[in-house]
From TrEMBL:
Protein source organism: Clavelina lepadiformis (Light-bulb sea squirt)
Pfam families the UniProt entry points to: Sulfotransfer_4
PANTHER family in alphabetical order: P-LOOP CONTAINING NUCLEOSIDE TRIPHOSPHATE HYDROLASE PROTEIN, P-LOOP CONTAINING NUCLEOTIDE TRIPHOSPHATE HYDROLASE
Protein known as: NAD dependent epimerase/dehydratase
Length: 274
């Protein structure tokens, strides 16, 4: 582990991830932690963890960004004391809160909701993310088909204040960079002691665009869409089979009732005139 990015979500974590990848680092963001370290993080959140747990989890990773890694920056640093720490921050708390609100609104996407219901993989990922968000912010993102998503911004703001204060007070000053992504390559590369890449500095997840990007190109979303098609096909087959059985049952019942009625009428006629 070379770099621990301690900035909370919506402080430029996706942009920083892209920048570190451009430099050549293997970066675990929120999604990678979910896909590859799901069980380990679940244990840490529900039962607790040790320094050895974090060392084992990130021994082959160069950098970690976003939740849950940023929230457990201190524990990860104990496992990798030589790692540098980057605290990404917005201009002020209100700017961060507006960005968080935009992310919440973007997440309330009907296509995402349908994928959650019909993709086992994405359903499991969502359950894990809900646990992580609750552990970090003390509240849960509530999405809805029929109204706006909700998120307790009071608790989120309090987490933002406490978290930043904790990093500023306790991170080793000689290993800490307080960074705003608006500053671009120069301070980041100087801190990491690497050459400035020849490409423009990345800009990711503007106004919650990460959800749109996820649906278009992320391997997890592609897998989820395939699972959704399988689920829809199975549901259609089950519905067709059920409809067929019902129609057969109804037809048989109608035939039986009609036959019985005819036979009853014939028997009455026969008994009356014979």
């Amino acid at each position: 582990m070379k770099v621990i990015c301690a900035g909370l979500s919506k402080t430029g974590t996706k942009t920083l991830q892209a920048a570190l990848k451009e430099i050549g680092y293997n970066v675990y963001d929120h999604l990678e932690n979910c896909l590859y370290l799901n069980k380990e993080w679940t244990k840490i959140i529900t039962e607790g963890g040790t320094t050895e747990d974090f060392r084992r989890m990130f021994e082959n990773v160069d950098a970690v960004t976003d939740i849950p890694g940023c929230y457990f920056w201190d524990e990860i640093h104990k496992a990798f004391p030589e790692a540098k720490i980057i605290l990404t921050m917005r201009d002020d708390e209100d700017t961060w809160a507006r960005s968080m609100y935009n992310q919440v609104a973007a997440a309330n996407n009907p296509q995402i909701q349908i994928l959650y219901m019909l993709s086992p993989t994405l359903k499991q990922a969502r359950a894990w993310s809900d646990k992580v968000v609750m552990a970090v912010f003390g509240t849960k993102l509530k999405e809805s088909f029929f109204g706006p998503a909700t998120f307790n911004m009071l608790l989120a703001r309090m987490t933002y204040r406490r978290h930043n204060a904790h990093v500023l007070q306790n991170a080793p000053k000689d290993k800490l960079l307080i960074y705003n992504i608006k500053e671009g390559w120069e301070p980041l590369c100087k801190f990491l002691e690497v050459d400035v890449p020849s490409v423009p500095f990345p800009c990711k997840n503007v106004r919650g665009k990460v959800v749109e990007d996820f649906l278009k190109e992320d391997p997890l979303a592609i897998r989820a869409k395939k699972e959704m098609l399988v689920s829809i096909t199975l549901l259609a087959l089950l519905f067709s089979f059920g409809a067929y059985k019902f129609s057969r049952s109804w037809s048989s019942k109608w035939f039986f009732n009609t036959s019985s009625s005819v036979w009853h009428s014939f028997s009455s006629f026969r008994n009356k005139f014979c």
